[in-house]
Amino acid sequence: MYGIDKSKLPRHVAIIMDGNGRWAKKNALKRLTGHKKGADAVRNAVRTCRELGIEYLTLYAFSVENWSRPKDEVRALMALLEEYLNSELQEMIDNGIKLSTIGNIRALPEKVQGILNNAVQKTAMNRKMVLTLALSYGGRDEIIEVVRKIVEDVEAGKLEKTSITKNIFSNYLFTSGMPDPDLLIRTSGEYRISNFLLWQMAYTEFYFADVLWPDFSKECLINAILDYQKRERRFGMTSDQLSGN
Ligand code: IPE
Ligand code: IPE
Ligand code: MG
Fold it and tell me: Topology of 7-139+180-238 in CATH?
C-alpha cells in the first residue's frame, strides 16, 4: 500500500504536532483556528495509521511547559480536547482503537479528566491500535516520578536496589508495556524534542518535516514512513553484523 513495505512498518510512531500557531499567523487567522485545523490533522493521522496497521501511535498534544501559555489559549486547547474526544469516541470504538494517556492527567480540568476516563474505559478492550495522547506530559517529570516510585518500592522492601535494570525502569514509566517509538515525526521545521519521551527515544529514528501541523496530510505521513523504511537501524552494531556478513 502506497509503496510501504508492510513487513517493515514501525510498530510505534510518535508525533510532535507543532506549528498550529504559525499556520494561523500565515493565514491571518487566530491561533485557536490553527489549533482547530490541527485537530483535523490529528483525526487524519489517526485514520491513516490505523489503515496502515501501525500498532501504537503516540501524539504529543499538550506538554507540561504548555501550561505557561496565555490562559485563554490553554482554556481553548482544553475545550478543543474535550470536543475532539466527544466527536471521536464512536469512531475509536468502531475502528478498534484503544485510547490511553501519558502525563500528569490529574492536572487537567476535571471535566476533561472525566471525558478521558470514559473514553479510556470504553475503548479498553480494543486491539487494533493503541492511540496514546500525551497530556500535561514532560519527559523529565516522568523520569523523576519513576525515580520516586522506585525509591518507595526499595524502601518498602518490594524491590532490591541491585535488581534495578533498564527493563525494570521502563516498567515504571507511563509507557510501561509499550514498545519504544521506532519513528518520531516532528512538524513545523523545528529540530528539537521539547521534553518528549526522553527515556523511550534512546534509539528512535527521527524525521523532521517542514510542514506546519495543520497541513500534515496523509501523504506527509506516508512519506515519513517511507523515509523510515530506508534507514538501517544499527543499535550500535556494524552494518555487516546486521546483514550477517
Ligand atoms: C502545536 O502548535 C500545538 C501545541 C503545542 C499545543 P503550536 O501552538 O506550538 O504552534 P506554533 O509552534 O506556535 O506555531
Ligand atoms: C511541543 O511543541 C509540545 C507539543 C506539540 C504539544 P511546543 O511548541 O510547545 O514546543 P517548543 O516550545 O517549540 O519547544
Ligand atoms: Mg510550537
Answer: Undecaprenyl pyrophosphate synthetase (3.40.1180)
In degrees rounded to 5, what are phi and psi of residue 127?
Answer: -130, 0
Cβ neighbours around 89 below 10 Å, total: 17
Give the integer Cα–Cα distance in Å for 135 and 59.
9
Instruction: Give CA–CA dist 127/231, Å, rounded.
Output: 28
Cα–Cα distance between 181 and 195 in angstroms, integer?
15
All three cell numbers of 210: 517542514
- Using the mean position of ligand 3's atoms as its centre, give its distance from the Cα of residue 204 in Å: 21
Where in the chain are the domains?
7-139+180-238
Taking a 5 Å cut-off on Cβ, the residues next to ion ligand 3 are: 18
What value does the mean pLDDT take over residues 222-228? 98
Output the pTM of the full model: 0.98
CA separation for the pair 164, 146 (Å, rounded): 12
Q: Identify the residue whose C-alpha is closest to ligand 2 atom 8.
A: 18
Tell me which residue of 120, 137, 107 sits closest to 198, measured CA to CA.
Answer: 137
Using the atom order of ligand 2, give the atom closest to the CA of residue 134.
6
* pLDDT tens sequence across 18-41: 999 999 999 999 999 999 999 999
Q: How many CB atoms lie within 10 A of CB 210?
A: 11
CB atoms within 10 A of CB 85: 18
- Length of the chain, in residues: 245
Q: Cell digits for 110?
A: 476535571
Q: Could you read off the pLDDT of 196-208 as tens digits, one per residue?
A: 999 999 999 999 9
Question: Distance between CA 13 and CA 227 in Å, rounded?
Answer: 13
